[in-house]
Automatic annotation (TrEMBL):
Keywords: Hydrolase, Metal-binding, Zinc. It comes from the Bacteria. PROSITE patterns: PEPTIDASE_M14. Its cofactor is Zn(2+). Belongs to the peptidase M14 family. This is M14 family metallocarboxypeptidase. Residues 30-309 form the Peptidase M14 domain. It comes from Stenotrophomonas aracearum. It holds the Pfam family AstE_AspA_cat. CDD domains: M14_REP34-like (cd06231).
């Protein structure tokens, strides 16, 4: 079913211009603090980690330091793992799951893998619980062509300049009810297209890079998360978010070609995690724990696979 009039900003059938983007931006309200929730947490990490500013984000009158934490005692002979959260700022457990991994679990990997954790790639969106950035661009479609927006370009450039032995990339996301009633309609309006409502999967799932899916790696994440929160079942067509189910809770989708964060590196083991925080069967703390479990399982599987027999 196509719905011709579905969003309070824009004219059906006409892509947004500057006026519509400004009208959309005026609707966004600060609801939480990047400085309090993310910057303070990073600065409180133990000395085993170094906090690095990899970029400077200017978003209208707002300015944000783009920060990550990395292993202080870096060993170039070890593999490197990248964890990203908050590429869509409204996806809360991606941000807090990455921070909880740093606070409570990352030290267990000392001497085994170099860690880079960027917990909140889009701070403007985090503060406003918004999918897009200040200019109504989707950061998770912008990790290509050198980076189309500051949020993606800064991280891509910093990673590229280091030339690390990057073997693992876990990008932490959520699928929420607001995708269906706010963000998908906004996207259709922004692009001047008809809105076709889609169903939201109820549970955790992962999207492996179709360019290099590593199915056993994806299955290991599902196995680790299943005791914590439920795994999303396929719909009547055997799909999740329009993608064919490959195994329990696992689908494969394009990453690099669409500019998704999980595809911008050459990491062999890469995935996008998705939790469903609006389910009555879970809670915010379980969603955070699911993200942490996925990160640990991904690291454990990769390290086991990369170790000599």
């Amino acid at each position: 079913m196509n719905t011709p009039h579905f969003y309070p900003v824009g004219t059906p059938g006409q892509p947004w211009g500057d006026n519509e983007r400004a009208a959309w931006r005026a609707r966004q309200v600060v609801q939480r603090s990047y400085a309090d929730d993310v910057v303070a947490a990073l600065n409180a990490l133990p000395e085993a980690f170094t906090v690095v500013q990899y970029g400077d984000l200017r978003a209208g009158a707002d300015r944000y330091p783009l920060l990550l934490a990395m292993t202080r005692d870096w060993n170039p002979t070890l593999p490197t793992a990248l964890v990203t959260g908050g590429v869509h700022g409204y996806e809360t457990s991606g941000v807090h799951g990455a921070l909880q991994f740093l606070q409570n679990h990352a030290s267990a990997y000392a001497g085994r893998v170099n860690l880079i954790v960027a917990p909140c790639v889009c701070p403007w969106g985090y503060e406003r619980i918004q999918r897009w950035n200040h200019d109504a661009f989707d950061p998770n479609r912008s990790f290509r062509d050198g980076g189309l927006i500051t949020e993606s370009a800064a991280l891509m450039a910093w990673i590229a300049a280091r030339n690390d032995n990057l073997q693992v990339h876990l990008d932490l996301h959520e699928t929420t009810d607001s995708d269906a009633h706010e963000f998908d309609p906004a996207l259709a309006s922004r692009d001047g297209k008809a809105w076709v409502p889609e169903s939201i999967p109820d549970g955790f799932y992962v999207i492996g890079n179709s360019e290099n899916p590593e199915p056993d790696f994806q299955k290991a994440l599902i196995a680790a998360v299943a005791p914590i929160t439920h795994i999303a079942p396929a719909d009547a067509q055997g799909h999740l978010v329009g993608l064919p189910l490959q195994s329990n809770g696992v689908v494969w989708g394009e990453s690099r070609s669409i500019g998704a964060c999980a595809g911008f590196t050459d990491a062999r083991f890469a995935t996008t995690t998705e939790v469903y925080p609006d389910s009555p069967r879970t809670s915010p703390s379980e969603c955070n724990a699911a993200q942490v479990a996925a990160v640990c399982a991904g690291l454990d599987f990769a390290l086991s696979s990369l170790s000599p027999p």
